[in-house]
């Protein structure tokens, strides 16, 4: 069964990791992380909808969204925040001495990540702001990923840009590894942005912690998403 027309992954994080490990050595596939903001954007963004359809996994990123999925009969074992998945995979990458290709993420944070994970070989490109509207800039980004293969391709560009780029990488048929569309997760790992304590995450209040940490950036966005999400939820429950 689907919720919000999304075919959610319903297994555990451990099962997901077991699926990811062999895929890291295969032709490119990618994972998207649905949350309330994504569901709002999917209402009007056809390119994002198409990118979602091509993803190998659509994992519930939000503990707030998790119980709502049950209203549709969709019952994931657990929410798997993209930040948590990224952290787990970076630990594996360091142990296995993998190569990780990063698209996005500021240079200062990349320096911190290289220091934190000396076992990882990082390839990094930082496309210019608004590059998603420039076909030549998109082409340079795709060429970089193909020319610098890694077991993981971390797309830290924000939604919907990262998902659209993941789909474009997939369509080249030339890239390898597993793509992670995980927004600002690398900022948490680098330590430039503090993630909520685990007890706050377990209470499904990470969203509140993030608002308190970055009110100017997030308060308006979260309020907008809440206003848009409620009628979307009601409409899907009625169909």
Please trace the helix and strand order, writing H or E for each element: HEHHEHHEHEHEHEHHHH
User: By helix and strand content, what is the structural category?
Assistant: alpha/beta
Taking all Cα atoms into account, the compactness measure Rg is 17 Å
Query: Can you list the strand order of the major beta sheet?
Result: 2-1-6-5-3-4
Task: Give a nutshell description of this structure.
The chain has 239 residues and is an alpha/beta fold.
Short descriptors:
glycosyltransferase, six-stranded parallel sheet, 239 residues, alpha/beta, transferase, Rossmann fold
Structure overview:
This protein is an alpha/beta fold and 239 residues long. The protein has a domain at 21-62 and 81-193: Rossmann fold (3-Layer(aba) Sandwich), CATH 3.40.50. It has helices at residues 13-23, 36-42, 46-54, 65-69, 82-96, 107-116, 135-147, 161-172, 185-190, 198-202, 206-213, 215-238, and strands spanning 29-32, 57-58, 99-104, 121-125, 152-156, 178-181. It has a six-stranded parallel sheet with strand order 2-1-6-5-3-4, sandwiched between helices. Strand 5, helix 8 (161-172) and strand 6 (178-181) form a beta-alpha-beta unit. Helix 3 (46-54) packs across helix 8, helix 7 (135-147) crosses helix 8 and helix 11 runs antiparallel to helix 12. The two termini are 13 Å apart. The mean pLDDT is 91. InterPro entries: WecG_TagA_CpsF (IPR004629). This is Glycosyltransferase. Pfam families: Glyco_tran_WecG. GO terms for molecular function: hexosyltransferase activity.
